[in-house]
Amino acid sequence: MAREEVTLLGMWASPLALRIEWALKCKGIWYKCIDEDLLNKSQRLLTHNPIHKKIPVLLHGGKSIPESLVILEYIDETWKQNPLLPEDPYERAMARFWAKFVDEKCWTTIPGVFGNERGDEQEKSKEKAIEELRILEKQLEGKKFFGGESVGFLDIVCGWIAYWLPFIEDITGLKLVDETSFPALSAWFKAYLSVPWVKELLPPPDKLRAHLITFRQKLLSSRLLNI
User: Fold this and answer.
1) Where is the GST N-terminal domain (predicted)?
2) Residue 83 domain-assigned (yes or no)
């Protein structure tokens, strides 16, 4: 039987693309990853995601599936092994609810700290990010993973926080999460990043740090130009 071709249009430093790689690796699905140049978007990307023109995009069976949360659900429904979403309808709904919270709130506030160096504004961004991280902390109380005893849908959705946040803290000099204030979240960081298929796909730390520093400089320069 011929192996199905699965291709991911992504970018090595993209947390959203990494979500998809984690899900495919968890399912044991062979895939090919094409690294897109986001400053010079390929015709391939524009063709497969003409609406948003963004990564990630999953190509499977002659179809294009954009948007990371949509792709995660597609993967879970297409390949039934190692399910990501819970079986219970309520628990499935709650996993989707918190995934939406992470993408609508944390995805904005945490990078907001990173892209701001003005005193008052940076402090407000920090306080907002900590407030939202406390909400995630509460969801983890008494659990090893958001999915319970094993990695699930919400762990993969939140996974970028575990790896990217320490880089953001180091580069900005701001501390958002520590073991005293966030014991459950701190323990989850370690547990999630220790999962073999998670660890295997993490971007090289030195390369990612250099990329983030350059990215931040561009963000700050663009803000100055808009003053």
Assistant:
1) 4-83
2) no
Q: Which residues pair with 32 in a beta bridge?
A: 7
pLDDT at residue 196, as a whole number = 98
Provide the whole-model pTM: 0.94
Owner of token pair 């190692």: 82
Using a 10 angstrom Cβ sphere, with 0-12 exposed, 13-18 middle and 19 or more buried, the burial of residue 202 is middle
Span 164-220, pLDDT tens digits: 999 999 999 999 999 999 999 999 999 999 999 999 999 999 999 999 999 888 888
d(CA 46, CA 1): 32
Q: Is residue 214 part of a domain?
A: yes
58, 78, 98 - which closes a domain: 78
Looking up tokens 């499935």, which residue turns up? 92
How many Å apart are CA 124 and CA 17, to the nearest integer? Answer: 29
Residue 98, SS3?
A: helix
Domain count along the chain: 2
